[in-house]
Design brief:
72% helix, binds fe (ii) ion, mainly alpha, 201 residues, 6 helices
């Protein structure tokens, strides 16, 4: 009589759960960061603080542009600036929340803000200059956030997903600024031609 070989014990999911629970209990004081966290926490917090500074500088620049926009096209553009300022504030809030989850301190110290930020605060005199500066800042944010996302990889998927979400929004911002720049440029050319025609007649 042949005895059936004993079936291999299936890897118990329960055991894994137990292990996960144990780790979570051990590091309960670390808040959302569990023993399974693979990132280099201090570096992640530092990188997120730079993104936070970038967002705050973007809020300030868009607000400045919102309040100082002048000219024929100013109303629609000024509204767009305000909308972007509010969205950048939303990004800043989400990044600050994540830093706290990682047991870090969100750095909102105005001192050194501009040097921690990846993008710059440029006021701009005309509407076109303002839009151009915003477009440049969005492009810088897109570059540096893509870099952050690559750095986070699989080591901190929560921070990575957050940055991916924000990146998608910055891409929309850049696209909107580009469209605005083009349409204002075309309007200005048309106005110049009209003035030339008038002068010639
Ligand atoms: Fe943003
Ligand atoms: Fe943006």
């Amino acid at each position: 009589m042949t005895t059936k070989p004993m079936p291999k014990p299936k890897p118990t999911f329960v055991a894994d759960i137990e292990e996960i629970r144990k780790r979570a209990r051990q590091h309960i004081l670390d808040g959302a960061v569990t023993g399974g966290y693979k990132g280099d926490r201090q570096t992640v917090i530092k990188v997120l603080n730079e993104a936070l500074a970038t967002e705050i500088v973007c809020v300030l620049r868009y607000k400045r542009h919102h309040y100082t926009a002048k000219g024929i096209h100013s109303q629609a553009v000024a509204e767009e600036f305000l909308e972007h300022a509010n969205e950048e504030q939303g990004h800043a809030d989400r990044i600050a929340e994540r830093i706290v989850q990682l047991d870090g301190d969100p750095d909102l110290n105005p001192e050194g803000l501009a040097s921690r930020s990846h993008s710059q605060y440029v006021e701009g005199d005309t509407l076109v200059e303002m839009i151009r500066e915003d477009l440049i800042a969005e492009r810088i944010a897109i570059e540096s956030y893509s870099e952050i996302i690559r750095y986070l990889g699989d080591n901190d998927p929560t921070s990575r997903r957050l940055m991916e979400d924000i990146l998608a929004n910055e891409e929309e911002h850049a696209e909107e600024m580009k469209t605005m720049l083009e349409s204002i440029g075309e309007d200005e050319k048309r106005d110049e031609k009209k003035t030339e025609r008038k002068a010639a007649s």
